[in-house]
Amino acid sequence: MAKERDELLDKYSVRVFKNRKSHITQLEFSDAPDEIAANTRAIPGIVTARGCCYAGCKGVVVGPMKDAVVITHGPIGCAFYSWGTRRNKAKSSYEGEPNFIPYSFCTDMRAPDIVFGGEKKLEAGIDEIMQMFSPKCIFICSTCPIGLIGDDVQAVARRVEEKYGITAVGYSCEGYKGVSQSAGHHIANNGLMRYVIGKGEKAPKTKYSINILGEYNIGGDGWEQERVLKKIGYEVVSVFTGDGSYETMKNAHLADLNLVMCHRSINYIAEMMKTKYGIDWLKVNFIGVGATCKSLRMMAEYFNDPELTKRTEEVIAEELAEIQEDMEYYKSKLKGKTAGIFVGGSRSHHYQLLLKDFGIDTTIAGYEFAHRDDYEGREIIPQIKADADSKNIEEITVEREEGYKDRYTEEELAGMRAAGVELDTYGGMIRDMKKGHIVVDDYNMFETDQLIEKYKPDIFFSGIKDKYAIQHGGVVSRQMHSYDYSGPYAGFRGAVIFGRDITMSLYTNAWALVTPPWKTAPMLEGSLGGGK
Ligand code: SF4
Fold this sequence. Notes:
Layout: H1 3-9, H2 14-20, E1 24-26, H3 53-62, E2 69-73, H4 76-81, E3 105-106, H5 111-116, H6 119-132, E4 137-142, H7 144-149, H8 153-164, E5 167-171, H9 181-195, E6 209-215, H10 221-232, E7 235-241, H11 246-249, E8 257-260, H12 263-277, E9 280-283, H13 289-303, H14 306-334, E10 338-343, H15 347-357, E11 361-367, H16 372-376, H17 388-391, H18 410-418, E12 438-441, H19 445-455, E13 459-462, H20 467-472, E14 476-479, H21 491-507, H22 510-513
Helix pairs in contact: 3-9, 6-8, 9-12, 10-21, 13-14, 14-21
């Protein structure tokens, strides 16, 4: 009986009901697999929390690369609102390494540029950038009007490469492409694969070299992961893309293993690198203590070296000992609470495991821009039918590059999979949720209000747009694109910071203590019909 879900849907008109019922699932008390519709167009006017394709390409994937200039080709609003809203931390890792993260570069397109074309303005802007900053790589990200007027950003990129001898990538990632940010991730992945990965020749120096894919270093998460990985003895060749760089990404094809954090935004590159360079990918999750230990152990199993396994266990034991007391304290404060979580891609799944470490149950969860495999697992992919919107995004085909071979035979990989190493796979969010709980795809403000009313979670982890609406309803909300200026939340030490932050939020929930004026008195006073 999907009581809460049915009550919610009951309020909709027939047309909206038909659409939304397939995007909201109350997990069934049966053995049949739960299904959900995803990655389809939002209903116009329904106030979705999604972003646009440009936001996915510029804001999520290429924006966090510190030594590359990302220029927004379009009006200033698109550039301003994609500047710093996700708190991707970055710092120079050696003397003189450029870090352009604090800058926002934009062609600031105006009416005459829209009428007469903006390619000249874009090239002039890039000349200015070259004079002032001399980057080795420039990404040009197109916004809606650019696609409408037909500026050829790829041609501009080729001219820039020829003129300056740098790498330039033109992205046709106009906001209206696809149905959400997800289209922009795919487009960004294609460009990195075509123009960046494989350009370098700097081989790793150690036996265990890895890339971390889909880690955007929000609040310094990536740095905490690197600290632990380096302590064990891994060499991190490159990170895609938080605190990442063009210089290191060029050498990514020379690493031994790809770790995939955010499955949705980067699985395309993981797949293409497997085909082209024979690099296996492993789905990991460094959000949550239990999840971090599991990921580290799977990595050790992959490399299959007793020395590395021993070191992994030593580091896990050291790290656990360091946080044990704090974790126990926060667990004593948080156990039995309930949470809702609605973020972009894999985070809504990752954070449920960290919440479980504290004894918090997630009763509502969903994604802004996921595909069905992010909910139901990758085995569902053959059943997903491509529609006109997904066909609109280029699928690039790669072939095995000469000189690269698979790290293991298929039999060896099958043996690892049988032992629980999550290679080339992702089980999705639903299987970690309990029966009766709600999974909602691409929710809107009405559904947010209704779900909070019905499930009454103690805390809600949200995106940028929905945070304050939830908070005004008296429920504590933490924004998961900025961590409300805290973090890191990843790994062992991050778990303690997370426990501290949500304990503080829950025990000082100012919003729940305030009685809004409209609850006690009418807000409007007036008269009808002209009388007094
Ligand atoms: S939808 Fe278009 S106009 Fe709006 S932010 Fe995205 S690119 Fe800019």
